[in-house]
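Task card 7
Instruction: Convert sequence to structure tokens.
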Amino acid sequence: LTPINQTRAQRAFIFVEDQISPRLTGFTLNMDDHTMTLSFTETVNASSLDATQITLQPAQWTPSNSSDIVTLTSSSTTSSSDNNTIVIDLSVTDANSIKRATGLAAGLGPNTFLVATANSILDMNGNNLDPITNGNALLASALERDGVNPVLTSFTLNLTSAELVLNFTETINA
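Output:
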């Protein structure tokens, strides 16, 4: 092979632009550190992540009126670089919503599935994600359930109304 320097550079005869959508191949959910790690078939543009297009549900197919469906909010973000693995930092609001959904990310057995629209993320050429639809939801490949105990942060006692209000660091099962 003879190296080609800048003065002898050659024009490509054929250029085929990337038109293949990235696919989500797996995800993990860690409720202790409030992260979700997404793995893709190719490098994706981390800054294009739209968490509001990602939903967690307790089964591969779940009715849309189920109280155990959690769609992430825009407050869940990523600080990942462009890569084929992206870590979403779940906001306190989203983490508490997942904890409140008693059929999700809790108990025994497979009960944490992901649905994602085509607008969830783009690859480096601007191709939308190959969507994952309800009925074909992707099962979490690993799940770290919430093992951190809630901490009482404050309380208010109203003797007139005989009401005690307790505030904790996270959602609790009252």
